[in-house]
Amino acid sequence: MSTYSDLKIELIGTGEQDGTWGTTTNTNLGTALEEMITGSADVTFASATQTLTLSNTNATQVGRNLRLNLIGTSGGPQDLVLPATEKFYLVNNATADIITCKNASGTTVAIPAGVSQFIFNTGSNVSVANTYHSGAGVFTTLSASGAVTGTGFTNLFATPPGPIGSGTPNTGNFTTLGATGDVTLGDAVGDSVTFNAGTAVVPNDLIFDGTGTIRTPRGTTAQRPTASLGMLRYNTTLSEFEGYAAGAWGSIGGGASAGGAIYENTQTISANYTMTTGTNGHSVGPITVDTGVTVTIPTGSSWLVSV
What we know:
By secondary structure, the protein is mostly beta strands. The protein is about 10% helix and about 25% strand.
């Protein structure tokens, strides 16, 4: 007399089915085994729990298939109760709501709408067979080529732990980019990092390392910004570097030199200038002070112009 395996493969008894065992074997191979390996079956919801069972027949059975395609009207979150036997399933939730895969008791797996998920059913517990890593750590490389799309991806970022930037999946801006440890922006000599914000605030030390250069802001005298102590820039009108200190803009060097023996200064003073208290100044003339421009020499200081 035939018996049946857990997944309902018919096991022919010794000496049984004389003349018909071939039909049984073909059904085992062509129906039962094919459903377990590659089969797909629809599970239709009608606003209620759906329960799958396996009976003693090697004929087609929904609960034996590898892929379960959940369709129909869910009418809110529902349960899919699986047969009490050990088996892998690929569950595609094509309904509008979360479907929880479970046994009569034990652990469960909730599959969001629009998501396909591999699960493993032990007969008493259901667990995720594939997952993503959600532990702590630091991004070392974040890159993409083209658009990142997919229903499962957008659903993940539409609900915790998402979203990125705003409440709408796949849209918005990074408002905070933080990490514990080092962060590299651009990892090749030719890469550029652009800050379009008006101000980039660096609360601690800023270290420029390498054999390249730093190009300071540059512009005419008329283009000087609203002054603040410590500002540095290159003045294209005066052809010199300048800084703002002690309430006035002043040259901070950058004149030409011949082996350290010849230093140059401009012949025209086109902006108000106040010498630093407690210092003396020396210029090589002739020097022209533009109309309306004032050079202020503090008490106790002197300015020598030699021709």
